[in-house]
Design goal:
It contains four helices and no strands. With 104 residues, the chain is mostly helical. The protein has one domain. Helix 1 runs antiparallel to helix 3 (51-75), helix 1 (2-33) runs parallel beside helix 4 and helix 3 packs antiparallel against helix 4. The radius of gyration is 17 Å and the shape is elongated. The chain crosses the membrane at residues 12-34, 54-72, 84-103. Keywords: Membrane, Transmembrane, Transmembrane helix.
Length: 104
């Protein structure tokens, strides 16, 4: 019975930390990347509007994500490392949702 309680606690804590991290990273990257100088915006010149911002967003997000993965996997006991990988894999499609929301 204790193992099930520990597993449930690990899932709940993982979900809370995952949501907090995603919100923090989203608002951090959006406030850092989205504001643009009006002169640069008026000049255009890019095939896809905001292309550089999207690439910076993806690179920064992946860098933060991999850093958090490495730190978390070294701190979490071995039986719960599969939960860390689950949240890591879940964050990859979340990045696509965040990109859609941030740049629309």
């Amino acid at each position: 019975m204790s193992k099930k309680n520990d597993e449930a606690f690990a899932i709940v804590m993982g979900a809370i930390i995952f949501l907090a991290l995603e919100v923090l990273v989203y608002y951090g990257l959006v406030t850092w990347l989205i504001p643009t100088d009006p002169e640069v915006e008026a000049a255009g010149g890019a095939v896809v509007r905001n292309w550089n911002k999207v690439m910076y967003f993806i690179l920064a997000y992946m860098g933060i994500l991999i850093t958090v993965l490495l730190v978390a996997s070294s701190m979490v006991p071995r039986p719960f490392r599969r939960h860390v990988m689950f949240w890591f894999y879940l964050s990859l499609p979340t990045m696509l949702v965040m990109l859609f929301v941030a740049f629309n």
